[in-house]
Amino acid sequence: MTVWRWRFFLPIFMAMLVLLSCEHRADAHGYSATFSTLELYQSKTELTYALDELSVIELVGGDTNQDKTLDSEEFAAVDQKLLAVLQSSIDVKINGESAGWAHVESLAMHPKKAVLKASFPAVAASQQIQLSDQLYLNDKASNYVNLLTVYNGTQRSTAALAGSNRTWSLNMTADDFAGLQPGDASPQQQLPDETTSSSATDGWLSFFLLGMNHILSGYDHLLFLFSLLVARQTFKQYAATITAFTIAHCITLALTVTGVIHVSSLFVEPAIALSICYVALDNLIRKKVSYRWVLTFVFGLIHGMGFADILTEMNIPKSNLAVDLISFNVGIETVQVVIVALVLPALALLYRWKHSRQVAVACSAAALMLGGLWLVERVVSNL
């Protein structure tokens, strides 16, 4: 009995040492997200650029009391520094020439985001407008994305600027220019759900890449997937588990993005962390896995809501919604299939080793502790 206890608890102890010896910030999402709106008028071009609060702190500091938020006084101390960073990173060009930043209307702190509003010269017929975003371009540790919505008269388009694909452009035709508002009314107020053609960065590919980047930076989703796989199972069990997870998160991803259901992130994010803890604990307690696909389906419904968070912030036109949603989901599934294809053969080799159970216990213990850290952090942050 004593030997068995040592074999069981030693991997857990080693996993604790590894976690505690590393300076780890319990943050499951490494995403820095911007939600931008570009509105085209006959007399001007308006840009609204909203950057999440944590990214503001990361870029220019200002969080003097270390509470991961910026009050009005803290933001006032760094707003000009932030403006300089944004002006050096964002470039609007008309016919290949930079439009400059002569008309900055405002830069203010809103709940959980800083919002910059600026105006630029109008885009005439037969001219091209281009927006490029170089924020975080050389920061390999950041997964930055600019979710851009463009209003062009009675048309609307969306694009996800991420990775090395950071430029959006549009060639203004004479008909498009004739359909623009003069500049005293927002095109957002009278838009049918139509889309405009723009560069290759706008469309299914940008959302496919966004889906890939989203799951690769969603460490909680990856840890949940690994926790599902690390317990020894038959091929049939693995297939059932992965299929259940895929179907479940596809269902709630679609329902959430289309607005059929809405569950607050105050519940979803802690529930995702809890799902990691539950599966990891199940791995520790039970040597044999049974009916895991049922549990995985339930937790997959929750993870699908988590996948949807970044898309729900975008004003995606209905005519684009199906393609963008499918592309985003295919990006997620592509990464998931690759991960499973790499992990399962490695686990098959591991299971031939006589100490494979101890390794699985150590991995599950580490997942349990990390999931527990995320759970506590998310619950406390919601208080």
UniProtKB/TrEMBL annotation:
Residues 1-26 form the signal peptide. It holds the Pfam family HupE_UreJ_2. The chain crosses the membrane at residues 204-231, 238-257, 263-281, 293-311, 331-351, 358-376. Coiled coil: none annotated. It comes from the Bacteria. InterPro entries: EF_Hand_1_Ca_BS, Put_HupE_UreJ. Keywords: Membrane, Signal, Transmembrane, Transmembrane helix. This is HupE/UreJ family protein.
